[in-house]
Design a protein that fits this description.
- With 139 residues, the chain is an all-alpha fold.
- The protein has six helices and no strands.
């Protein structure tokens, strides 16, 4: 990534905080709320220190947030009767958020972390949940 070490450190620090909040919050809407800070921070950084990888990261984080938020809303409203949030999903999310921050600050390849986040987002959809049930998709 071509962003400055200072901005990489800002992202890592923020992601560590977010990861801790995802772990410590008891209510699912609050966990999802704190997760939204990931793509918010990425957008603030790429507005001042642009890198195309940050756009990719922002898109995947935002899409995953949208999927989690939509599924939880549908479950709460009673409109979703099949798809559920897999056990340990938010622990996995917290782990990968912190991992991603460390990856960014150390200027390593973000793709393995992006794949994990994309899988978490995909499990909130019909086909993704089906693949999770089959054991093909891991979160």
């Amino acid at each position: 990534m071509t962003i400055s070490i200072n901005n990489r450190q800002i992202i890592a620090n923020e992601f560590k905080f977010i990861s801790g909040k995802i772990r410590s919050e008891k209510e699912l809407p609050r966990k999802i709320y704190y997760f939204s800070g990931t793509f918010g921070m990425i957008q603030r950084i790429f507005n001042i220190d642009y890198d195309i990888n940050l756009v990719l990261l922002h898109t995947i984080l935002q899409d995953t947030h949208r999927g989690l938020n939509n599924l939880l809303s549908m479950i709460i409203s009673g409109n979703e009767k099949v798809i559920t949030l897999p056990p340990g999903l938010f622990d996995s999310l917290a782990d990968v958020v912190e991992e991603l921050g460390n990856t960014i600050v150390n200027d390593k390849d973000i793709m393995p972390s992006l794949e994990k986040i994309a899988a978490i987002g995909y499990v909130t959809m019909g086909n993704g949940y089906y693949l999770y049930q089959k054991g093909t998709l891991k979160v």
